[in-house]
Every structure is written in C-alpha cells, then in structure tokens.
Write a structure and sequence with these properties.
By secondary structure, this protein is an all-alpha fold. It is built from 13 helices and no strands. The longest helix has 75 residues.
C-alpha cells in the first residue's frame, strides 16, 4: 500500500510540474497566434526548437545527477552523493553561461540556419536571443527540481514548476496586450519562468530537510561520465525533439509554406502538452526506480514499472479518443485568423500524429527502467532511434513518398518500431541475467 501511495504521489506531482512547464510554451503559442498571426506562429515554431537543447542539457545533468545521487544515498555513500550534486551544479552553471554568450553574439545566425527569413527573421532573432540569455536559469531549474524530487520532496518541485508557469501566463498577457511588447514580450515572459522556479527551489535547498550540499572535494571525471550515462537517454529524448522539429519545419516549409509550418506549430505545441504527461510519469518513477535499484529491491522495481505502464497506457488511449472527437475545436483555439487552409492541414495532421500516443507510454517507461537500472546501452538505443535516427530517416522517406501525409504518418510508425526494439532489448536482458518478471529483475544486494 505504501509503495502505491508513493508512486501516485511522485507521479502526480511530476505530471503537474511538467504540465506547468509545457503550458509556458503553449501560452506563448496562444498569445503569439492572437497578436502576430501566421508569421508570428511560424517564427515561434522555428525558434522553439532551442528549448530542446536547453531543456535537454538541464535534464542530462538534472536527471543524471539526481539518479546517481539517489543510488549513492541509498547505499549510504553520503560524501559521494554530495560530490555528485556539486559537480552537477558546477557543470549546469558553466553550460548555461556558454549558451548565454551564444545568444548575445550569434542568435541571428542561429535562427537563419534554422530556416528563418524575410519578415520572420527579426521576430525569430528577438525570441532566440531572449531565451538564450536566460539559459542558466532554465538549466539550474531542471537541476534543482530533479535533486529536490530525489531528496524526497516532490511537492516543492511541483510548486516550483506550477508557480513559474502561472507567472508566465500572467506576464504573457501583460507584456503582449497592455504593454504591446510583441514577440519580445512573449519571450521575456517565458524567460522569467525559470527564475521564479529557481527562487522557489531555494526554500528546500536552504531548509532543514535538505540532504544535498556543496562540498569542496574535487570533481572526478569518472563520476561525470557515469552521471551523464544515467541522464543521456532522457537528454536524447528532449534534445532530439528540437532536431526533429527543425527537420519537420524544413520539410513542411518546402511542401506547404509558412501556413504548413504554422499548422505544424499548433500540432507540435499540443503534442508538447501530452508529452509532458508521459515525461511526468517517467520522471516521477525515476526516484523510486533509482532508490529501489540502490537498495537491490527487484520487487519494488517491477511494481513501479507495472503501475507506470498502466497509467501511461490509459493516458494514451484517452488522449487519442479526445483527438478524434475534438480536433476542430483544438485547432480552432489557435487559428484566430480563421485561416481555412491552416485549419484543414492541422486537423488532418493531428489525427494521424497523435496516434503515436497510443504507444508512447511503453517506450518512455522502458527508457526510464533501462536508465535507472544501469542498462545504459539499451536506454540509449531506444532513445536515439526514437528521438533522432529513426524519426529523421522515416520522415524524410515518407515525405518523398506521400508528401505532407507521410510527414504526419512517420511519427506513429517510429513509435511502433521503437516499441518492438524495446521489447527485444528487454527480452535479451531477461535471458542474459535469467530474470523472471515481465519487466526484469536485478540481483538482490548481499
């Protein structure tokens, strides 16, 4: 009973937190579509891929460091756990500052390479520069939230995400309507979101219940590699979303112009909300899986995996049924100009694209399980195929054969192939270690 309560406590708070983060981008999409029309939507969709890189790096160091921290704490290695936190924090700050300098010096060149031109270029440049200047806060928020969640306080992690997102909604309206700040207002409101999150995280960090602290002991290269190994699959999932967004944008721009890109922007942002639920489930189970693995509790690992799979499967079915019945209304929210072509493209695309959510749950849970139990190669294979190599190859091939319809169809096709790959890898792990459960078991610690 206690394990089930812990599962739903961690997962529900993680889902709410991730939804809050996704709402940040969705709010930008809504206000930009209302104030700046199709060109604004196209500019936003071209630049939004930068979140894949920023969030990916934050997740790499946050999830990876926190998982390694949790395993070390479960094994009674407190000094090592604190050294891992110190290393993860130092790397996060350094990477964030590097991205800040990139934004100041090269934002226009970056958005040009991403496909922005004409009227879209200046809007994309403003959005990109603003977001990159706040990259240190985005990355540190991911880091602190991950460590706080693994430190037994998922509630404050959820609050940090939700309050920041609520601030974004309010500031988006204020900056874009009364202040009439245009695309900069949308970017600045979004950029302030992680600042709020970091400030809230400090309440746990400086509190009495906090168990992770800075230490003066030197950084160890081997521990950095192992920490990144734990977070690499999650990084690939997040970072590759930006690459895929870029590839989709370029292919759709070629076949359907800016209207097609704007339609994809609506679909991608709605998909971001749903993906946040699945990410919330996988990140919610991560502390439980890591702790159980550190303790050698194979029964707990399988219980957490089973619960996560059930919740994510039910979620996928409900989402797709809602999409089939309410696609016109979902698209219409963002089609403020009542562009008929935009409506037709987006409605047709979302019904095919969202079929992928019927299978996404298992793929996310398998990746979380592989990562938390040190099956790093398996987690990387699944993540890299699903998030990068597989989707890029399939979308290019399908676009050549079926055009725009092929682009939409590529997403559920890759999820099917990924599911088969994950099942084969899990079966090999069972055979290799003589595991008996439907997930797999780890050897009990002596």
């Amino acid at each position: 009973m206690k394990s089930s309560v812990n599962f739903y406590r961690y997962v529900s708070m993680s889902i709410l937190g991730m939804l809050g983060s996704a709402v940040t981008i969705l709010t930008d999409t809504f206000f930009v579509s209302d104030r700046l029309g199709v060109n604004g939507l196209a500019a936003l969709n071209i630049t939004i891929c930068i979140f894949g890189l920023i969030n990916g790096l934050g997740i790499l160091l946050g999830i990876g460091g926190a998982a390694y921290y949790s395993i070390s704490k479960a094994r009674g290695e407190d000094d090592k756990a604190n050294r891992i936190f110190t290393t993860a924090f130092s790397l996060s700050l350094s990477v964030g500052l590097l991205l800040l300098l990139t934004g100041i010096l090269f934002s226009k060149q970056v958005v040009f390479l991403l496909g922005a031109s004409g009227e879209i270029l200046p809007m994309a440049d403003i959005y990109m520069k603003t977001i990159l200047c706040f990259a240190p806060f985005f990355i540190l928020r991911h880091l602190l939230i991950s460590f706080i969640r693994n430190d037994g306080n998922p509630k404050i992690a959820m609050i940090a995400m939700l309050v920041g997102s609520a601030a974004n909604v309010i500031l988006d309206y204020v900056f874009m309507y009364p202040f009439n700040m245009g695309i900069f207002g949308a970017a600045f409101a979004t950029a302030l979101t992680p600042v709020v999150g970091v400030l809230i995280c400090t309440f746990h960090w400086i509190g009495r219940k906090n168990q992770f602290h800075f230490v003066s002991k030197g950084i160890r290269f081997g521990e950095i590699l192992k920490m990144c190994g734990f977070g690499l699959a999650a990084f690939i999932n997040e970072f590759s979303s930006g690459i895929v967004l870029l590839v989709f944008n370029l292919l759709i721009l070629k076949s359907s112009g800016n209207t097609g890109v704007a339609a994809y922007g609506i679909i991608a942002n709605l998909a971001l909300i749903v993906s946040a639920i699945f990410t919330g489930i996988s990140q919610g189970v991560q502390p439980l899986l890591s702790r159980a693995y550190g303790e050698g509790n194979s029964m707990q690992i399988n219980s957490v995996f089973r619960h996560g799979l059930i919740v994510s499967t039910i979620t996928g079915v409900l989402v797709y049924v809602c999409t089939l019945y309410f696609a016109p209304e979902m698209i219409g929210i963002f089609n403020k100009e009542h562009n008929a072509t935009l409506q037709i493209i987006a409605e047709r695309g979302i019904k095919v694209y969202f079929a992928s959510f019927l299978l996404l749950g298992y793929n996310f849970m398998a990746t979380a399980l592989f990562s938390a139990t040190e099956e790093v190669v398996s987690s990387l294979v699944v993540s890299f195929f699903r998030g990068c190599a597989g989707i890029i190859a399939v979308v290019i091939l399908f676009s050549l054969i079926w055009g725009l319809d092929g682009i939409w169809l590529s997403v559920p096709t890759v999820e099917i192939i990924t599911l088969l790959i994950a099942l084969c890898l899990a079966r090999k792990i069972k055979a290799k270690r003589n595991y008996r459960s439907f997930a797999y078991e780890i050897p009990e610690k002596s």
